[in-house]
Give the backbone structure.
Amino acid sequence: MEDFEKKICADVIVEVVNLTRATWKEAGELKKILDEDILLKYRRIVIDIGKCEFMDSTFVGALVVAQKKIVKMGGEIKLVEPVSNMHELLEKAGILKLFDSYTTQREAIESFSYNLEHNNPHPLRI
């Protein structure tokens, strides 16, 4: 399994982090992936960190920098939150105040207020 997996769901891109430990080693790759998404004009991004049991400050920093970039462009990054103790740590550090977070990919995607009834030609598939 790859460390990062990309899914496209209508006008939302989902980046799945398939790591239990996300550190500075992977932060550069995440930054590159998110920069490419932004360059390709994606403005609605979901990052699924549900498998992460540990994230160091460099990895978290890559998330925060990407959020600031995309907000300036009128977009947003939403998180699928970790189910482990990382959720509590992110909350205490104030990181979850910067991101809307959800328990599932579907909830995060649907929260973007795009609506299949508005002639969206792409079906919602996860």
